[in-house]
Amino acid sequence: MTVVHPTAIVAPGAELGEGVEVGPYCVIGAKVQIGDGTTLKSHVALDGITSLGPNCAVFPFASVGSQPQDLKYAGEESRLVIGANVVIRENATLNPGTEGGGLLTEVGDNCLIMVGAHVAHDCKVGKNVIFANNATLAGHVEVGEFAILGGLSAVHQFVRIGAHAMVGGMTGVENDVIPYGSVTGNRAHLSGLNIIGLKRRGFERDAIHDLRHAYRLLFSTTGTLQERIAEVAKEYADNAVVMEIIRFIQADSARSICQPEAERAG
Predict the structure, then answer these.
(1) If you placed Cys at 155, which of 29, 78, 112, 173 could pair as Cys (CB 3.0 to 4.6 Å)?
(2) Rounded to a whole number, what is the distance in angstroms from the first to the last CA of the chain?
(3) Would 169 be classed as within a structural domain?
(4) What percent of the chain has pLDDT over 70?
(5) What are phi and psi of 250, to 5 degrees?
C-alpha cells in the first residue's frame, strides 16, 4: 500500500509504485517515477524527468532531479535515472543531464550517497559506489562499480574513476584514476592499489599479487608509459583484471592518467 503524508505535495502525473512511502513535506514533480518499496523520509524534493528505482531510501532535504548547475543548460528535457536499493542521505544533490552530455545522468544499483554529496549533470555512476560525506562530482564524470569516494573529495569534470578505485578524503582529482587504484593528496596522486578494498571483495591472493606486479611495471621509471603498457599487456594478456587497467589507460579520455607522485614530479 502506498502511503503519502497529508503535508506532502505530489503533482498530477507523478508515478508512485506499490509500497512507496512519502513522508512529511516532500515535494514530487509531475514527471517523477518512484519504484516499488521506496521511502522518502521527509522534506525531500524530487523534480524533473527523474526515475528512482525500487527499495531506495531518500533522507531529509535531499534535492534529486532539479535543474542542472550548468550555464549552458537551456531547459532541454533531460533525465536522471537512479537504480534500485540506492540510499541518498541528507542534503545530497543529484542533477539530470544536459544536451552537451547526452541528456542523461545515471546512478547504478546499491549506491550509498552520504550527507551533502553531489552528482552533477551527465555523470555515469556504476553499481555499489559509495560517496562519503560531501564527496562531489563535477559534470560528465564516470565512476566505475565498487569505487569509493572519501569525504570532502572533489572530482573535476570529464574525469574517469575506474572500478574498485579508492579516492582518499579531501582529495582533488583532476586526472583519470585507474581501476583498483588508490589516490590521495590536495591534487590527487596515485598512491598504490586499493588493497583493502580488493581483500574485502574476495579477490584471491594470486590475483592481488598479479595486480601489484603489473602496477609496479606500469608505473616504473624505465622507458615510456606506452612501452610499459605494451610490456604489461603482453605479459598479462590472459589476465582479465590486469587487462581491465590496460584498456582503461588506452581508452579515449579528456584527461591524463593520474600518476604516482614521484612519476608526476619527474
Answers:
(1) 173
(2) 63
(3) no
(4) 98
(5) -80, -15
Q: Looking at the predicted structure, is the pLDDT value of residue 208 above 60?
A: yes
What pLDDT score was predicted for residue 261?
Answer: 85
Positions annotated as catalytic residues are 121-122, 139
Number of compact structural domains in the chain: 2
Q: How far is CA 218 from CA 64, 105, 146, in A?
A: 40, 32, 23
| Residue pointed to by grid coordinates 581501476 | 179
Dihedral sign computed on CA atoms, order 96, 117, 166, 170: positive
User: Is residue 110 one of the residues assigned to a domain?
Assistant: yes
* One domain for residues 32 and 135: yes
Q: What's the whole-number mean pLDDT along residues 166-190?
A: 97
pLDDT at 213: 97
